[in-house]
Amino acid sequence: MEWKLLPELTHGTIISFWQPFFDVWPVLDDLKSIPALWKTSRISSHKHLLPFLTNISKVHCERISNLILKDWEILSTIIKQWLELSHIRYTIDEIYEIYLHIYFIINSRCLYAEVPLKKDDRTSKFTLVPYVDFINHSEEMDCYCYPKIDYARNDGSGLGQFVIRGGSYTYKTIGEQILFNYGPHSNDFLLNEYGFTLGKNCWDTIDISNTVQDMIIQKNDIKMIEFLEENGYWGEYMINHDGFNYTSVVAISLYVTNDYDRIGKLILGYLTEDYFLPKIKQLMIEIVNDLMSKYTTQNEGLKNLNISSDTDTCVYNLLNVFKGYTDILENVDI
């Protein structure tokens, strides 16, 4: 209302107190790489890239898109009333695109501050910090800048002052850029939340839950599924730079050996993964090879669109995601 509609309603005679803040917000083109924007915007020119999202990105994109549409369903009824009561040049469809712009500004630029009176209310804890836009993300933890609440500067409200502190890294070179760690996030997460990726990201993870679950389901063994569910090992199967995660090793081991007794001992810590690895190695190699073929095909399909990654950041980011996946698969220790 204050950014776009207040000037319209007052014929430019009233400007919001927050206008200087609005002026440093990114334009919509700066946010165009966020997949949920491709999906929800009615005018996005990047919808054709949605099939190239990885499984985990598709889930993330769907979750954000559903939140966007749910919020719009509530807000649009109010905005339609505003349009009926005043002479505003915007249509409801144009305001919807403005809403998307604002939504992603907030979603991509929130840092969280503890509110003592609302400890269980996460939605009341975010703050928009404009100067963080000048600090790029680094994959390294506990090294560069980080957010902090300085309670020593309390104004009496108990909130403290939100500050950005320098990490342990010492800047010595003039012109060296200041960096900030958003957290241990994969390129899939960074793409969906912020619209960018890293050329190399040590936190990249391949979600193989669908692959492993489909394999077990096709075995048509209800007992196996129930056993994994009851013990907390149904789903969340991953491959990262350290290899197959423990959850996937347990599930694959049960699938191959059908040895419930020893799997139970593995879960309890009486046996180690080393007992099962020789038995499941071949299947793990097949999974890796199938995934490598899949992502190589998707990567080639993306390149065949003949869209230069030098000029289109959306394509550049998707190629980075695939590169992260193939790097993991090429170096996975089995």
From TrEMBL:
<keyword id="KW-0949">S-adenosyl-L-methionine</keyword>
<dbReference type="GO" id="GO:0032259">
    <property type="term" value="P:methylation"/>
</dbReference>
<dbReference type="InterPro" id="IPR050600">
    <property type="entry name" value="SETD3_SETD6_MTase"/>
</dbReference>
<keyword id="KW-0489">Methyltransferase</keyword>
<keyword id="KW-0808">Transferase</keyword>
<protein>
    <recommendedName>
        <fullName>SET domain-containing protein</fullName>
    </recommendedName>
</protein>
<dbReference type="GO" id="GO:0016279">
    <property type="term" value="F:protein-lysine N-methyltransferase activity"/>
</dbReference>
<dbReference type="InterPro" id="IPR046341">
    <property type="entry name" value="SET_dom_sf"/>
</dbReference>
